[in-house]
Specification:
2 domains; eight-stranded mixed β-sheet; 8 strands
Length: about 200
């Protein structure tokens, strides 16, 4: 199965879900982004791992790596292998001697471990096809604004838009607007509606 190499693009607070964060993974070879909603504890652990902060006592993910090292288990890769009903699934590819083992994990935990051990993060192409959001070139977006090009105005009256009443092209415009505004929760919701109509 084809895999896509990913990198961490950002970690932002989710305004639509209290206490949640959005981890944004980017395809290293395209504009596709994978937004994953995670909890605050996992977001903090990922941020600590990225910043290489050292705590006096080990966090859970630090403890996991110490345990793995003690038993000579190497974390080779994190693979996001499924996206089902809005939920992402991942696995840790572990090696002990010549034996490879796949360990089921939440993506947030797996990535918190990956940033500590420096292993690769990837996703199956099927996951990217189903769940990724395309990020258009920002320069082209700015050019459109300067030449008067703009998306179809939607929901001028404020409040929550009625997605059921919108056409697919209108939803696609709204999706792009959400991505441009870095509202990845909204973008993921609109993306799922578009896919359900396909």
């Amino acid at each position: 199965m084809n895999k896509v190499s990913l990198e961490i693009v950002g970690l932002t607070y989710s305004e639509s879900s209290t206490g949640a964060y959005v981890l944004i993974l980017g395809d290293k070879n395209s504009q596709r982004k994978l937004p994953i909603v995670i909890g605050s504890a996992e977001a903090e652990s990922i941020a600590v791992g990225i910043d290489r902060q050292h705590n006096g006592r080990p966090l859970t993910h630090d403890l996991f790596l110490r345990f793995a090292k003690e038993f000579e288990v190497e974390i080779k890769e994190v693979v996001i292998n499924r996206f089902r009903e809005g939920i992402y699934y991942a696995m840790l590819v572990c090696q002990q001697g010549s034996e490879l083992t796949m360990v089921d994990a939440r993506p947030s935990d797996a990535i918190a471990i990956a940033v500590r051990c420096g292993c690769d993060i990837s996703a199956y192409e099927t996951v990217m096809n189903e769940a990724s959001i395309i990020m258009e070139d920002l320069e082209q977006e700015e050019k459109n604004e300067m030449t008067g090009g703009s998306a179809t105005p939607i929901n001028k009256g404020g409040g929550k838009p009625n997605y059921d009443m919108m056409t697919v092209p209108e939803l696609e415009d709204l999706l792009q607007e959400a991505v441009d505004n870095e509202d990845y929760m909204k973008a993921a919701q609109i993306r799922d509606i578009i896919k359900s109509r396909s």
